[in-house]
Amino acid sequence: MGPEALAQVLRPLGGIFDARDFPGLLVGLEISDDAAVYKISDEEAVIQTLDFFTPVVDDPYEYGAIAAANSMSDVYAMGGEVTLALNICGFPCGLDAEILSEILRGGAEKVREAGGIIAGGHTIDTKEPLYGLSVLGRAHPDKIFTKAAARPGDALILTKPLGVGIITTAAKGQAADPAHVAGAIASMKKLNRDASRILHKLEVRACTDITGFALPGHASEMAEKSGVEIHFSLNAIPFLDGAIEYANQWLFPGGASRNQKYYENRVEFASGIPDEMRQLLFTPETSGGLLAAVPAEKITLAETLFAEAGHPFHLIGGVREGRAGFINFCRG
């Protein structure tokens, strides 16, 4: 569902639950972040999220692993650790049982890698496969990441390159280099767990993950909720091998246009940035990296910690005072 339709669907829910009646709810519909957070004690809060989608790759095991990594990503975007998960499955009648098993095995092994456990789930008949997880995480209530805590002067870092959306779209059209597809799969399967742990060491408070609303959309939400303006350096933004090539061929999924239509009034591009690059930035991502606002004085430490962990680290922009919710892309 596109961002405009989603906003319309959720709007009537705003008056049903009064947050004052649920003092333990730290993050819910009124705040609208990556996951819900409920405080159960002074030392612990639970994080709840769910996600599922139809296949983005042909291999059933890889699809299951990607869907699981994507589902768990919101827990890491909130600064938590995965504890428990339930499968959400929709499979066509008559689909080979071995394919179903491989999807579930891919998801289960990814949850085990995250240190969690799958304890059950629910399955329905659907026209095409869909798979994902309902995930329970945990965190200290005073150490939650939110979209609303970016401050002027913070630096913005990204922990995975962009481009999986256009690469998987090209693959569906039999137009992608297998090496590019392999790179996209590896990126989507990579958990955001290590990155989230490093961000805690940096005392980060503002974070989100880059998924269906793409970098401009998720960054705009962070800017709006934090009351700040965000700027990005296009030359510093990393892309997977093949992404720019397929953008030049205009192999974009429909979600790119939907994102552009909804967010373009909040996004400004420097002159000379071509249309295909703008569209690429609006292209949805799957199981993308974390976008985090890091205090400027912590950037040197960030470089050290990410290097020691052997984890990608990209300094792509910064936060400043200005028009709340607005995003700027410059070339430099």
Helix percent reads 25-40%
How many domains? The number is 2
Strand content: 15-25%
Classify the fold: give the CATH topology of the largest domain. Answer: Phosphoribosyl-aminoimidazole Synthetase, Chain A, domain 2
For the residues shown, what is the average pLDDT? Answer: 94
Count of runs of 4 or more consecutive helical residues: 11
The number of strands is: 13
Order of strands across the biggest sheet? 8-11-7-12-9-13-10
Question: What is the name of the CATH architecture of the largest domain?
Answer: Alpha-Beta Complex
Helix-and-strand structural type: alpha+beta
How far apart are the termini? 34 Å
Q: Could you name the CATH homologous superfamily of the largest domain?
A: PurM-like C-terminal domain
Tell me, what's the shape? globular
What is the CATH first-level class name of the largest domain? Alpha Beta
Main β-sheet, in a few words?
7 strands, mixed
Residue stretches low in confidence (pLDDT < 50, at least 5 long) are none
User: Helix and strand string, N-terminal first?
Assistant: HEEEHEHEEEHHHEHEHHEHEHEE
Overview of the structural elements:
The structure is a single chain. The protein is of the alpha+beta class. The protein has 2 domains: 3-143, PurM-like, N-terminal domain (60s Ribosomal Protein L30, Chain: A); 155-330, Phosphoribosyl-aminoimidazole Synthetase, Chain A, domain 2. Helix content is 36%, strand content 23%. The chain contains 11 helices and 13 strands. The protein has helices at 3-10, 60-77, 97-113, 164-172, 178-189, 193-201, 214-226, 243-248, 254-263, 275-281, 299-308, and strands spanning 25-27, 36-39, 45-53, 81-91, 117-125, 130-139, 155-158, 206-209, 229-233, 267-269, 290-294, 314-320, 327-330. A hairpin with a 5-residue loop joins β2 and β3. The longest helix is centred in the first third of the chain and has 18 residues, at 60-77. It is globular, with a radius of gyration of 19 Å. The two termini are 34 Å apart.
